[in-house]
Amino acid sequence: MSIIHGNDSNLIEKSIEITKSTETRLVDASLTYDYFPKGEKDIWGEQVDYRPTNSWNEKLSDVSVTEIVESQMINTVSPTILASELFEIMKPSYDDSQDLEENDIHHSVRFGHSFIINVTSHEGQFETSGKSDSHIQTNTSKASLNMLTRSCSEYYARNGILVNSVDTGWVSSALPAYRAPPLTDLDAAFRVLHPILSGSFKYGKLYKNYKEVDW
């Protein structure tokens, strides 16, 4: 993406100024003991965050540049690098002399396939209602992760690697909610493992509640 607006040097200086100001805002908040009491954890073992607002309910213009980049690094860049760098060692090595039973050819695990499961969420779906102007950095990064699955799955499948996305459902909440999340970490783990444990040969799919859903 390119932006042309008058003096380019002034634009660069302004961009740097904005970046520094958002980073300063994030650091100032993190040093406020009232918001982040030392040693106090939530039920998921993470540092308690008592800020009245955070990136989950802030508008895009209020979210720090640091967190925008972090979201992309965690949800998009890192999975993309891993899928790329691990491709060769994940390709199955089939042995013509391998003794396969009849049932093995109908079960992806026993047949020797490898698997990549990209853990996504409701925020990354296009075919869903309820999109808001909050946590846009999460929406875009999860949508990018879904595109990784859709884009690489065909080629990877031809090389014995089945790539799918799984939406674990509501497992945790970044803000106090009107009720506790209905699913546990164990529920989420079973959903992530479902495309593998089921022995399915499908790829390039999005699963939610153990079923294929629209992207």
TrEMBL record:
Organism encoding this protein: Naegleria gruberi (Amoeba)
InterPro entries: Fungal_SecMetab_SDRs, NAD(P)-bd_dom_sf
Single GO cellular component term: cytoplasm
Molecular-function annotations in GO: oxidoreductase activity
Top-level division of the source organism's lineage: Eukaryota
Name of the protein in question: Predicted protein
